[in-house]
Amino acid sequence: MDIAILLQGLATVSWVAALAIIILAVIRTSRGRPIKAAGGMIIGIVIAAIVLTTVSAGLVFIKPEERGLVLSAIAPGGFRSEALPSGLHWIIPFAESVVRYSISRQTYTMSIAPLEGQIQGDDSVAARTSDGQEVLIDASVIYELDPEKVIQVHIAWQNRYANDLVRPISRGIIRDEAAQYGVEEIVTSRRVELIAGIKSRLDEVLQENGLRLVDFVLRNITFTPEYAASVEQKQIAEQLAQQAELTVEQRRQEALQAVEVAKGQADAAVTVAQGQAQARVIEAEAEAEALALIAEALRDNPDLLTYQYIAKLAPGIQVMLVPSNNPYILPLPALETNPYAE
Questions:
Q1: 3-state helix, strand, coil in the chain (%, to 5)
Q2: 3-class state of residue 138 by DSSP
Q3: What span, in angstroms and rounded, lies between the C-alpha atoms of 251 and 301?
């Protein structure tokens, strides 16, 4: 618990007690029953209240996330030259007072959403790109007060630095940086470059005014309805063109595949034909060799053909009839005489 607040509470209780005793003493005195030693009690309580009030007015506790600027009626310039760090401090009662400043991180958000930013309603930054298109930028600035520059901030801005410094400076820098890029660049290829440029300039300006930039967050970029519609139409056209290219490529691949299949079939047909031709050549050569061997065998053995002919006949044939006007093809051996012939 803050001891200064505790002492202020005790001082308040002392004053209330002193007032209550005074009222009670007056009432009892009017009824002829005065309180014994009432005056001494009242004086003691009043003295205690004065002491407590004075001490509580002189004790100041500064939290770790705060710095205290001491306004002084007796110091040159009206304030102490150094801000109070965290901890318990003593100031001159009733001649000095403390203005507290937070040194913790703070966020200032400018958003198109009505309930997200510090200002209700659409507080996005309207900027115009280098190609003349208007965009709406949502952004958050995360910053903190430099503990070493609390006095500088108080003199220049007091507690107005969020609305009178961070907000207008951020919006102006965002507009200036966005104007250096085309509308497609700030949402695609050069978005990181845009953010880096805003950070650099914003950090420089805030440091000059006693603040430190922690981070800059480019939350969203929104187009006007007209441009958004044109972008959508362009994307649709590009998708259709890509689809057409894919279809053409598919048809080309199918044609190439058909050519390769036809080529393979032709090669296979040629291979089969060559194989058949070679087989026929080999077969013809074999037949020629066989005929040559047969011819040679017949030349050396003229009766071999007659023998082969007779061997092919059925074993029971005794007589053969041939047309009367044709000669015998082959000379037949003499048949056995039929014992029953006349």
A1: 55, 15, 30
A2: strand
A3: 73
**pLDDT tens, residue order, the chain (342 aa):** 567 778 778 888 888 888 887 887 778 777 777 766 667 777 888 888 888 888 888 889 999 999 999 999 888 888 898 999 999 899 998 899 999 999 999 999 999 888 787 788 888 999 999 988 889 999 999 999 999 999 999 999 999 999 999 999 999 999 999 999 998 888 888 999 999 999 999 999 999 999 999 999 999 988 877 776 666 566 666 777 888 788 888 888 888 888 888 888 878 887 888 888 888 888 888 888 877 777 777 777 776 666 666 666 656 655 555 555 555 555 555 444 444 444
Dist CA 234 CA 224 (whole Å): 15
Ordered domains of the chain (ranges, CATH): 3-102 (no CATH), 106-223 (3.30.479.30)
| Rounded Cα distance, 40 and 275, in Å | 140
Dist. CA 81–CA 70, nearest whole Å: 9
